[in-house]
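Re: weekly structure request thread

Next one in the queue (339 aa):
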Amino acid sequence: MKIIVDAFGGDNAPVEIVKGAVEAVKKLSDVELILTGDEQAIKNILKDEKYDGNRIQIVHAPDVISNDESPTMAIKQKKESSLVVGLDMLKNDESIVGMVSAGSTGAVLAGGLLRVGRIKGILRPALAPLLPNLKGGKTLLIDCGANMDCKPQYLEQFACLGSEYMRNMFGIESPRVAIISVGVEDKKGNAQVHETFELLKNNPNVNFVGNMEARDMLSGDFDVLVADGYVGNVALKATEGAFETIMSVLKSEIMASGLKGKIGGALLKNAFKRIKERMDYTSVGGSPFLGVQKILIKSHGSSKAKTIVAAIEQVKTIHEAGVVDKIKAYSASVLDQGE
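Done, posted below.
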């Protein structure tokens, strides 16, 4: 299967992105990659790598979209950028199943809408990262930044999209859906949450279990967490930051505890390593932009080679599960076709 990688998207582009592509073709025997970006720069990195040259193609795209540019304007004006060239190929070439980019989040999302297009019946596509939970599984957060201001009808569709994703990706027959709110009681939250609550409570296609406080995001008691992009992004970043802070505090306290603390830390080294691996978001790959016509993965801006490999694997897994086609069928049969 063919997958596009935006070689010039992200803080560590192009070196880490290209190295990730090389590692991916070594690991995944049935994947061919198309790298978009400055051809000579990509070749300069590849010349020192050992890989199957028949499985990595370069498409020259000299421009780069930066994080400080207006996403919509950049997508419209920078038609020779690594992102736009990749998105156009994704839309127009049926043999290409998906794309990975660690570039500007706004540009990736705007490009997904303007260049690839949304599935008929989807009011607003949503960014949906997977979070590790305490029960060893995954919890989907939808939305986490694509739609800052949402109508309750958008949130209702996010619940449907998230449920369909978890059903097809993880075999969860009836995913448990909750709204992120300021309390678990039915009447908690703002007007948006109140109206969304009523919509989901009366939606027969969603296993709605009520409101959820943000402290329970990683409990494993929920499969899909629904929020507008503002709340979802704050919750996601706060969770990531809290984990990193806790690990840093643990390390500093162990080092400051003298010989006994250091011995104890050494004895627990493997346990700490397992905890870090279990909670490491970089091992997931990225966040799928659910509701667009093809698979589009937005990886973290600081992605290194390991994360790019995981994101490419993510595209492969989503494709093999037929998620996009199933969302299209679900949308046609269930979701409101009104705009």
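The first strand starts at residue 2 and ends at 6. DSSP finds twelve helices and twelve strands in the chain.
Next request, please.
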